[in-house]
Design goal:
Elements (H helix, E strand, L loop, with lengths): L2 H5 L2 E15 L9 E15 L3 E5 L6 H8 L7 E6 L2 E2 L8 H7 E4 L13 H11 L5 H14 L16 H13 L5 E5 L7 H18 L2 E6 L2 H7 L2 E6 L2 E7 H6 L4 H8 L40 H5 L6 E4 L2 E3 L6
Parallel strand pairs: 3-8, 3-9, 6-7, 7-8
Antiparallel strand pairs: 1-2, 1-4, 4-5, 9-10, 10-12, 11-12
Helix pairs in contact: 4-5, 6-7
């Protein structure tokens, strides 16, 4: 991480974030009544200006719910979120226009996230008009400029989404996220739906835009190769909680939590020693409706002892400089 990043001001602060959903029992095959799903439970995050934070974990661990709460698209059960000095919580009067100019999202599926009945020009122009850019010439200029930035041309603005490839559609999705010139962009699995040959192009585009526009990213992904390539810091989530966080190099070279080690061991590597298989995580993430007693990871943990079964995992504690882990056996 560069000295400039370390000294940069804090753009995002998430403190003790919890998000619960009330889910009907009939949807779960459990008859009538409702059950409470603890999707996120006590998450703390910070993001500095110009930084990229990788948020990783298996599907269902709560990564996307954290993103939606930051953007004010789901209501937090408790906790405080501050973006660029603006509070995002249930008790605050949310200025959605200001929030939209500050934070945006690039979605996972470029086929589903674009309106098939709108041209690219309208997809990019509508946000500008909603935020007070009414001069037609200025709108056209900003649309053309943004298309050029993402590797498309102004001539393509009159086309519809179905006329583009998957990679081109994701470029349009990126252009839409950036058209209001936000400071924070949350990328929710932005390349997982794309062909392998296209992924590197989109990743490089995101890095180029980050530098040229001075953007800050939260990169949500289960692809650790993407996270390693893009992130300054990494936070690892498991069943709604952060279990490890630190500089990307510390996380990838010296993972402290058994779950993080399992994620690393799952990265395909033909030259990895056979002993690495001892770190692999087996089984599936437990249901958030019925989490295990004690440490939530203990049923899958190769290092589990009686304390893990009986006692919830500790609060994040420092393993090394700016490297924190929630595990009784991390040391």
């Amino acid at each position: 991480m560069s000295v400039a990043t370390i000294m940069a001001e804090e753009l995002l602060s998430v403190r003790d974030l919890a998000v619960d959903f009330s889910v009907g029992g009939h949807l779960l095959g459990l008859g009538g009544g409702k059950r409470l799903l603890h999707a996120v439970n006590g998450v703390n995050l910070t993001l500095r200006a110009g930084e990229c934070l990788g948020l990783v974990g298996e599907s269902g661990c709560g990564k996307s719910t954290v993103a939606l709460a930051i953007l004010g698209l789901v209501t937090a059960t408790r906790g405080a979120i501050t973006i660029d000095g603006m509070e995002i919580d249930a008790d605050a009067r949310l200025d959605r226009r200001r929030l939209a100019r500050t934070a945006q999202m690039v979605f996972q599926d470029p086929y589903a996230s674009l309106n098939p009945r709108q041209t690219v020009r309208r997809t990019l122009a509508d946000p500008l008009r909603l935020h007070g850019v009414t001069n037609a010439g200025e709108v056209d200029d900003r649309v053309a400029e943004m298309l050029k930035r993402v590797g498309l041309t102004a001539d393509q603005a009159g086309r519809y989404p179905h006329e583009f490839s998957g990679g081109q559609r994701q470029r349009i999705g990126i252009a839409r996220a950036l058209i209001l010139r936000p400071k924070l962009v949350i990328c929710d699995e932005p390349v997982s739906a794309l062909d392998v040959s296209i992924r590197a192009q989109i990743i490089n585009l995101l890095l180029e835009l980050k530098d040229s526009l001075n953007l800050s990213y939260i990169m949500i992904s289960h692809d650790l190769g993407v996270v390693e390539h893009m992130s300054d810091r990494v936070a690892v989530m498991y069943l709604g909680k952060i279990v490890e966080t630190g500089d990307w190099r510390a996380i990838f070279e010296r993972p402290g939590h058994p779950y993080t080690r399992g994620l690393m061991a799952a990265i395909p590597d033909a030259f990895a020693p056979a002993a690495a298989s001892a770190n692999k995580v087996h089984g599936e993430i437990p249901s958030p409706f019925n989490p295990p007693r004690g440490c939530a990871f203990h049923p899958r943990c190769p290092m589990m002892v009686d304390q893990c079964r009986a006692t919830p995992g500790p609060e994040l504690r420092e393993l090394a400089d700016a490297h924190e882990v929630s595990c009784w056996r991390a040391a």
